[in-house]
Design a protein that fits this description.
- By secondary structure, this protein is an alpha/beta fold.
- It has 14 helices and 15 strands.
- A 7-stranded mixed beta sheet has the order 1-9-8-5-4-2-3, sandwiched between helices.
- Helix 6 links the parallel strand 4 and strand 5.
- Helix 3 packs across helix 7, helix 5 runs parallel beside helix 6 and helix 10 runs parallel beside helix 14.
- The chain is globular.
- The two termini are about 20 Å apart.
- Bound molecules: pyridoxal-5'-phosphate.
- Pyridoxal-5'-phosphate (PLP) binds next to helix 3 and helix 4.
Length: about 375
């Protein structure tokens, strides 16, 4: 089976993990802060907080931004459920902004309209979660301007987009947002098996997220001087969302090859564009101002009726195509909250015609030719 995504693990990765296994610390040792420093420097952010998944990072980011009961979190429907669920973990209400059919990211005009309406109804969001779908950067500058105007916080879900940039600004720099989150699940750009990270330039947000990832506990020198050096205080209710040193060592080693991974993805995406250009489908639209991380290569079929049969034919040919994403609000757990089909027409129209083709750094041109031939036959 040709997978739709696959991690790439080198001997150096294995050695890095084994070194930690032989060391004094399996968790809460030196590897986690070293991994945080590596990622923060690469994406030009001041602070990084590593956790056990992007889902955990989104949760503590929302808490640090003050999201709670009675607040609204807005995101897009064309994403993984985690981008919306983080709002519900905090007791907030969740709403969705439709996507642009060009970028497949949040539609800035729709966002503007929805904000103007929400302002009149006194229902402005506290947190907006834009998602860099497929690795293609969102126009964060435009969102930041709206955030200044309407007073909401911006939490970038960059689970697909470590290594991407727009106008020379790396995704994760948080120049136009409060917090950015990366995922290190094995299908993503770099992996730690499971893992995530929150980046920010705000020292208070960083400190709050550090505390929340470890039970809300603080060990500070003043109280230790008074009470004894064993002393610690739980200042608020936190979680155990810590990353282990074993996984952080894998992350550091993977970061050494981030640029190589991204250029391999670019090469394959360029080649797909050429090989697919005469087929009855739409290839991904490019943003001339941006460098995508090419987490996913998604095509949109002209003939919606045939998506299922084409999907099945490719799977039967041992090619693991996929579909990203079912609009989040169509999930039964969201329908229960009152969402109905038709709520975000662009996201729904996109969903019925989309197909994700295999793409990962170790994919050979021969593998890619197999995918293209099979797709061509399925469409014939
Ligand atoms: C993968 C993913 C997540 C969740 O990441 P985990 O590390 O698996 O928790 C969140 N948002 C998006 C857009 C994702 O693709």
């Amino acid at each position: 089976m040709l997978p739709y995504a696959r991690q790439e693990i080198s001997q150096a990765d294995i050695d890095a993990v084994v070194d930690v296994l032989r060391s004094d610390f399996l968790t809460q040792g030196p590897a986690v802060p070293a991994f945080e420093k590596t990622v923060a420097e690469k994406v030009r952010a001041k602070h990084a907080v590593a956790v056990n998944s992007a889902t955990s990072a989104l949760h503590i980011a929302c808490l640090a931004l003050g999201l709670g009961k009675g607040d609204w979190l807005w995101t897009v429907p064309n994403t993984f459920v985690a981008s919306a669920n983080c709002g519900r973990y905090c007791g907030a209400e969740v709403d969705f902004v439709d996507i642009s059919m060009e970028t497949l990211n949040i539609s800035i005009p729709h966002l503007q309209e929805k904000l103007a309406r929400a302002k009149k109804q006194d229902r402005l969001p506290k947190v907006l979660v834009p998602v860099h779908f497929a690795g293609q950067p969102v126009d964060q500058e435009a969102i930041w301007e709206l955030a200044r105007e309407y007073g909401f916080k911006v939490l970038e879900d960059a689970s697909h987009a470590i290594g991407a940039s727009r106008k020379g600004e790396p995704v994760g720099s948080c120049r136009w947002s409060d917090i950015t989150v990366f995922s290190f699940h094995p299908v993503k750009i770099i992996t730690t098996g499971e893992g995530g990270m929150a980046l920010t330039n705000d020292p208070d947000l960083a400190e709050r997220m550090r505390r929340l990832r470890s039970h809300g506990i603080v060990r500070d020198e003043d109280t230790q001087a008074r009470e004894g050096s064993w002393h610690y205080e739980q200042r608020e209710l936190g979680y155990n969302y810590r990353m282990t040193d074993i996984l952080a060592a894998l992350g550091i080693s993977q970061m050494n090859r981030l640029d190589t991974f991204i250029s391999a993805r670019h090469r394959l995406a360029d080649r797909f564009d050429t090989l697919l250009c005469d087929l009855p489908l739409k290839i991904p639209q490019r943003d001339p101002k941006a460098e995508s991380a090419w987490h996913l290569y998604v095509v949109q079929l002209n003939d919606v009726q045939r998506r299922r049969s084409i999907f099945n034919k490719l799977r039967a040919a041992n090619i693991s195509v996929n579909v990203h994403y079912i609009p989040v609000y169509l999930q039964p757990d969201y329908r229960r909250l009152g969402f109905e089909p038709g709520y975000c027409p662009a996201a729904e129209d996109y969903y019925v015609r989309t197909l994700t083709l295999p793409l990962y750094p170790a994919m050979s041109e021969a593998d890619q030719d197999i995918v293209v031939t099979a797709l061509r036959e399925a469409l014939a």
